[in-house]
Amino acid sequence: MTLGTLLKQGREILQNAGIAEWDLDAWYLLEYVTGVSRSQYFLDPEREVPQEQEAAYRQMIDKRSTHIPLQHLTGHQEFMGLDFQVSEDVLVPRQDTEILVEEALKYLRENDEATIKFYKGAPFLVEAPQFVDLVITDTEPGFAGNTAQGALKPATVETGLVIQVPLFIESGEKVQIDTRTGEYLGRSKE
Questions:
Q1: Sign of the C-alpha dihedral, residues 5, 57, 76, 93?
Q2: Which residues contact 24 (CB under 8 A, 6 or more apart)?
Q3: To the nearest whole number, what is the mean pLDDT of the chain?
Q4: Higher-scoring residue by pLDDT: 33, 147
Q5: Cβ(139)–Cβ(188) under 8 Å?
């Protein structure tokens, strides 16, 4: 059987089983089983697939059609740019989890801690501490006589987050930030 025919059959099975990402999952399983890259596939979709690979692919497709997560079949999941080994004993990180983590990381330095809350096995909230003290690494300098009430300017803190601070705040100062809103609260008391 050819790569193209095998992929077509895998797609049909997964689509009929109601797999949301049937097209992509059929491709990933073909790539995983045969080791054929996309470019190799498009150069030669008529390439014959060895019988043992065909049987392995069909077995993977059958398992995926029962809604076993793709990552449990392949044993891998990328998360935050890293490749993790996973098994059926491991909660598979989802893309929306990565977004939650990225939001929390805006307020966290190395070795700071965050809390991840789960509902029915899926993370729904990643919390940094309510208030954090971070150093301003870049902002326009203030100037004498600038006392406009409530006027703000952008400032970058040590994590790369850009916040709005009063005009009198200078680079190198440590400020307190509310992680729920991203608002400047005042100079740090640390």
A1: positive
A2: none
A3: 86
A4: 33
A5: no
Question: If pLDDT is split at 50, 70 and 90, which confidence band does 110 have?
Answer: confident
pLDDT at 144 over 60: no
Q: State the average pLDDT over residues 137-144.
A: 80
What SS3 state is found at 41? helix
Is the separation of the CB atoms in 187 and 177 below 8 Å? no
Q: Which two tokens stand for residue 167?
A: 């005009």
Number of Cβ atoms within 10 Å of the Cβ of 8? 13
For the chain, the distance separating the N- and C-terminal CA atoms, rounded to the nearest angstrom, is 69
Residue written as tokens 């100037």? 143
Cβ pair 182, 168 in contact under 8 A:
no
Does the pTM surpass 0.70? The reply is no
Q: How far is CA 106 from the centre of its chain?
A: 14
pLDDT at 119: 67
Residue 102, sorted as left (phi over 0), alpha (psi -120 to 50) or beta, turns out to be alpha
Placement of tokens 């077995």 in the chain: 59
Q: How far is the CA of 173 from the CAs of 128, 137, 157, in angstroms?
A: 21, 8, 10
CA atoms of 45 and 43, how far apart (whole Å): 7
